[in-house]
Amino acid sequence: MSLPEVLGRFAPDCSSLPQTVFNDPEVLDAELARIFTRSWLFLAHESEVAVSGDYVTRRMGRDQVIVSRGEDGQIRVMRNACTHRGTLLCKATLGNTSHFMCPYHAWTFDNTGRLRGVPEARPAYGTFDKSSRDLRRARTEVYQGLVFATWDDDAEPLADFLGDFAWYLDALVGGDGAAWEVAGPPQRYTIKANWKLSCENFGGDGYHVPYAHRAPIEGGLFGTEDTGTGGPSGRVVWTPQGHTARVGYHPAGSGIPAYHGYPDEQRAEFAAKAKPEVFAVLENSDVLHGNVFPNLSFIQTVITYTGDEVEPTAFLALRLALPISPTETEMLNFALVPRNAPDAWKQKSVLACVRTHGAAAGLFESDDVDNFTAVTFTGDGAIAARTDLDYSMGARLPRPEPDDWPGPGESVPHDHSEYTHRAYYTTWLRHLREDA
Amino acid sequence: MSLPEVLGRFAPDCSSLPQTVFNDPEVLDAELARIFTRSWLFLAHESEVAVSGDYVTRRMGRDQVIVSRGEDGQIRVMRNACTHRGTLLCKATLGNTSHFMCPYHAWTFDNTGRLRGVPEARPAYGTFDKSSRDLRRARTEVYQGLVFATWDDDAEPLADFLGDFAWYLDALVGGDGAAWEVAGPPQRYTIKANWKLSCENFGGDGYHVPYAHRAPIEGGLFGTEDTGTGGPSGRVVWTPQGHTARVGYHPAGSGIPAYHGYPDEQRAEFAAKAKPEVFAVLENSDVLHGNVFPNLSFIQTVITYTGDEVEPTAFLALRLALPISPTETEMLNFALVPRNAPDAWKQKSVLACVRTHGAAAGLFESDDVDNFTAVTFTGDGAIAARTDLDYSMGARLPRPEPDDWPGPGESVPHDHSEYTHRAYYTTWLRHLREDA
Amino acid sequence: MSLPEVLGRFAPDCSSLPQTVFNDPEVLDAELARIFTRSWLFLAHESEVAVSGDYVTRRMGRDQVIVSRGEDGQIRVMRNACTHRGTLLCKATLGNTSHFMCPYHAWTFDNTGRLRGVPEARPAYGTFDKSSRDLRRARTEVYQGLVFATWDDDAEPLADFLGDFAWYLDALVGGDGAAWEVAGPPQRYTIKANWKLSCENFGGDGYHVPYAHRAPIEGGLFGTEDTGTGGPSGRVVWTPQGHTARVGYHPAGSGIPAYHGYPDEQRAEFAAKAKPEVFAVLENSDVLHGNVFPNLSFIQTVITYTGDEVEPTAFLALRLALPISPTETEMLNFALVPRNAPDAWKQKSVLACVRTHGAAAGLFESDDVDNFTAVTFTGDGAIAARTDLDYSMGARLPRPEPDDWPGPGESVPHDHSEYTHRAYYTTWLRHLREDA
Amino acid sequence: MSTHAAVTEFLFEESAALDETRYGDWLDLLTEDFRYEVPQPITPQSPDEPQYTSRMPISSESKGSLRMRFDRMSSEYAWADRPKHFLRHFVSNIRVRRIGDDVWEVRSNVLVARSRTSEETVLATAGRLDVLHGNPKDGFRLAARTVHLDVEVPSAAQLAPIY
Amino acid sequence: MSTHAAVTEFLFEESAALDETRYGDWLDLLTEDFRYEVPQPITPQSPDEPQYTSRMPISSESKGSLRMRFDRMSSEYAWADRPKHFLRHFVSNIRVRRIGDDVWEVRSNVLVARSRTSEETVLATAGRLDVLHGNPKDGFRLAARTVHLDVEVPSAAQLAPIY
Amino acid sequence: MSTHAAVTEFLFEESAALDETRYGDWLDLLTEDFRYEVPQPITPQSPDEPQYTSRMPISSESKGSLRMRFDRMSSEYAWADRPKHFLRHFVSNIRVRRIGDDVWEVRSNVLVARSRTSEETVLATAGRLDVLHGNPKDGFRLAARTVHLDVEVPSAAQLAPIY
Ligand code: FES
Ligand code: FES
Ligand code: FES
Ligand SMILES: [Fe+3]
Ligand SMILES: [Fe+3]
Ligand SMILES: [Fe+3]
Q1: CA dist., res. A214 & res. B104, Å (int)
Q2: Prediction pTM value
Q3: Does domain C41-154 have CATH number 2.102.10.10?
Q4: Which of chain F's termini has less CB crowding within 10 Å, N or C?
Q5: Would you tell me how many other CB atoms lie within 10 Å of the CB of residue C342?
Q6: Is E80 within 8 Å of B367 when comparing Cβ atoms?
Q7: Is domain F3-159 classified as CATH 3.90.230.10?
Q8: Which ligand is the nearest neighbour of the Cα of A370?
């Protein structure tokens, strides 16, 4: 099937879409060319490059880049490839340096990407315009500690790209991105699944929680007290840029405060900084998770029990899904902790994250990965290539009337629905239909 | 080379064909789309799903399916993929169940493929037409215990697809498919060879036997008595549907009865059921093997010696060749034994099969696989891509006059010839030339 | 990007070229079809098939071939694939045989590629024109002991293909190719890099030596005496056929004789055979390396110290780069030694070669392979696919006036430049632009 | 029996309990305060810096959390662990050092082979640093295990087993 | 020498005989009624059901059938076995249990590496359940071997060796 | 301690020195005239001809050349060896034979796992033929090692380690 045929199979409202978007190499090529070179992409947390000279090596799509903090304190993202003949400049995962020297002919770039040294420049090249050979830089902006970059010089500013969704990122970090730091370098691992399957799931999909995660829930991961009426009571949110989120709720009046599971001092700090609407939204919530288009997922929730003490502990995790091939994805898991929380608490939060939502989290996450893999697996085949999947949940019901829920963007209290999936693919489709 | 160019290289009578049909990914894509979605494909032996609820998981081409016997006793074949968002439903190789529950959102299908349970169907979806989301079923028919299915609702009935070749399947099972059962779940293994190379070989190719298998034959696998004049005395058979077979013969008057190597009681049962022409065809035969287009091969022969006692023992094996890539194939080996034969005999038959024609049969089969691999191996290259192979054996000789051999279909007593190869590829070419 | 778009990105003088030539599968397909089926390709050294019946199995591009010396003493190159149905004929790396028997149906070819035996030819085929089924042979010619072949019957003679570059091959072997032999069967190994990266480097690239190889040079590999003014003093050479070379020089008057590092007797022999201009060119040289278009590289140099005694020892190595995929290459390393040199010296020469320029040469070669891999690695990505690399070194400087350096071909004393790279890709581009 | 032989026997039995999914038997081989940690492998700039960080480890488990995980596996809804996979440990290069009274530091290299349904076998290798309590006469208990994976970006299949 | 050490030595020598294609030596290490079986791996629905079935095994060999196979290899027409391939066994996690007078049940884990001509090395892993007759003083004979492959759909290259 | 046990311990410590990049420690385990050779694997026509040739070996090193190589690694410009890679040896099937006074021929099978930065782990297998000098009481020194790779066309990653 050609790419136009694939795109032509989408239902207008994305309530149905061809399974082959998870398997077709031509689709991935188009995604890399039309999304990953134009969208703002998440790269790193500011705290990973805390001081001048700090750097981490990452990918944007499949392009190798360096995220580096220059002597001027500014964070930049640049291709990790020498502008002479393309050699990978930096092979380390992370480090601190003022300069990167190419191992082939020793061209040397400073950590802002500027070409500083060309051995024998004059005799070898004659007049040599060094500035024409700076590392290719991606436009870089930081929001609430999250470092984004785009290759597209004509892209809208990051603030516009995030739009109303910025409010939810604010909510995530208690209004103060600078208060957070990564617990450590991110976990990295590969899964045999298309990259979008994790993103669409993180952006909503409350429907899978009671079924896919039935075993650990019954095991007491979220506690054993029955907090009430039962039934899905969350809310899904989306914006025109394709950003999606879900807030899960305990029954009204459960008395669970916003930022439950964080140390009390921390909650007080958040209260001082965050807007009242944020508190209204987060009160009685048990989870906030979502996906910044295209591939940055996040989750903040409270884990009560993982086999040791019963003690509600919050964690905040970021999840980056980097395509390797249509059927293989590299995942990066970042745990964020409040910089000023006690070390012992930080460790507990990391433990809660690692045991339930980490790379090797046998207690929860493994069932999700198993599903992403199982969808990708069935996509191989001639009949599979002509099969459409069903993303219609909620599409045939009347859209709930607007209510006074204070979060921005579009949202409905239809927790178990596929509104967010459709919003995600509507944006995806818009990008894919743009010419290369 | 484009697909039309590849097809254009075939000699009109298929006496020469481009080697690239064994290596070109575009050719495999076309095969999957034009053959594997339209032909009747072998799936399983009826005895593998003997009672209601029994199932095995298999592939049709590269599509995942479940072969299941419903509570109504009927065998059905259906996609092993949830109709919601595509998750693999059943990961086991075999089992018995009334329902398949999807691990992602717990949609539940009964073993006829009917969607029975959708959690929260009403609140989540509103009016939900469950029947529109039954598992995609393939048309299924059984012939002599062999379960076939096709994705093409407009396909001719299985009987028409088999045509005259049904007679040879009857002969294979002594006229009574129900008398047979699989010895156990099939052997499965992969070979680095194109899937057609095994099929074309099984459908005839008596020419390779004395040379490729010289070592085991000299070792006494088929006995050590010289049964006569020597020289090839078999017969090759084909039908317009591309089905092909070969009957090998001892010299006339060798006094070898039909179904030699089976227990006497068994032979008596066959005699009671099978047509006299079958006996005329099988008398003095030492082997009956063939291939049901596109990819079900079979062989029935007698092994005399594999290192233990000298004792002629028959076996009947089915061989399914499932493409993984142009150059890799999954093989399934089934051993069929008469249900009522003594257990000790069954074991000997399995032993004869496993040691000579099994996945790890160092005594015979390994030389075939080695050749299939070696052909595929030389197909990689720019000169290889422009090379034609020679399938002309017998094509330049006058076709022998029809004789009174009682088997149906077209056949010639030109044992060492490539009539069957040409018949196979003539059908193959007809399918490949049909539009997608 | 389509192939014409890729080719369209080249600067007219090849001073800039798209990085994707190292990663694009379509580019490799075109290379195989347009270069590797038309150019003269190096196969083996004459001494590998020293006597009648000797053979080695090799590849031309990705096509399997046998290089064999017939009973008539002539060396021939032929496809290693049966002309019946394509089976690989010979699986050994090397050996001696008069005939190759196909394992499938026992067709037998003599070591000139002539089909000699077809079992049952008459009854199976009728009139059978054996000569129409000889192995496909490639035109074969030998120059100075180097065996070349081409699939193109219309190709110019080898002498014309080598042109002025033959002079440098003469220089390499002291004017007498017959005086040399391979030390043993070549080393073989694979690298995760495009095949051209090794070739372009060997054909010049003096610029990388002091930087990529700084550690071993500082370790004393080439000795520790300072031989003078420093600064690059080599010369790069190229011919219109895309052949390229570099001669590195000690400062004038260093008193280093031609063929330094060979036994004195050997140098005397060379002096008797080689032209005076060769001596003029090689005097005071420390290295002669280059690349015969497309993929035969060579190097002759002197190693002073590898951890044992300090003792200048010369070696001559050939390096063949065989594409496996755009990003993987098989390398063959041949060490040539003067046939009549003392065994002890031969071993020292091999040691010098193996430790510095061998498959596992941790002291020198590993840094080159690391760079070739690192260039290929950064080529994966959507931005990478639109990136051009800089091969302009020397292109913006006035070309030095012709001088009296006696070597033929075009050459400039601009040691650290990319003249040779541009010459290589200019020829490459001419071939790629020819129709398939 | 020498300590080395006894420790070797203990480690082989311990691996067999995992490979044969005898999780109860396996838990019985652990001390109550058992700690299992898989630090995150990284490639630092300088060879003098460590290749592993525990700030955000790949795994950090206690006897309690492992028991919870095993309990889960007996559930019909343990999707990722059902159906059963093929698992096998290859333990070699065992080096034993006494670090206290009846306390032993045991280093070993482990290769783990895992396959699920019709998937190819996935191999993974790691170094293990164990602390054992006990002695050849009374038997041993595993008090701690740290696993140094030999790969920076493992596959999910390589992360699934306990090493 | 302890029984464990003697059994270990026996198994290493036995593997070496296979790796070095000393088939006569290898056959001499077997009892006359030696049985070699590789059951078919399957993935059953329930974790309580067995992962292997012997109804139609992958291999079922006797000393006689193996001798026939080795004899064949000495033929010039043993196409699949010529030219020689590279083969190496890695035997580890050896566990010995006495099950009768001079009769031992020996479990081991085995990784087999195989390569032919210019092919990449193919690795395969399995558990082995051996029955040995004998004792350290008189030596051992291998009376039975069952091989549990760690993969449901092995490649032909993985099936070629004797484990 | 038996000779076999002592040799085993020696080989495990020796591997650990390589895996942990303690090159000085490793060199101390070698005799002054130590020879390390990796012959070129080939596939000869006949099974009676050798599968390895030393005429142009893959590697041929002395203690001096290895010291030079290790010295180089401490340079900032040892591009191929920086940053540090992950490396692990799995030594098994150790067979010891006395061939002289305090001289031992030791055969072992070795699997080496190597990974660099974000690359997948590359495995390689080989047989080793070592000559050891010494005895359990005074300790051993490695006097020679020959490595028989199990693959004719290894990858560069498989050739990088010392086996
Ligand atoms: S490629 Fe970087 S300096 Fe030449
Ligand atoms: S994918 Fe099967 S229930 Fe949702
Ligand atoms: S393929 Fe070679 S003889 Fe038939
Ligand atoms: Fe989930
Ligand atoms: Fe056959
Ligand atoms: Fe170099």
Answers
A1: 10
A2: 0.97
A3: yes
A4: N
A5: 12
A6: yes
A7: no
A8: 4
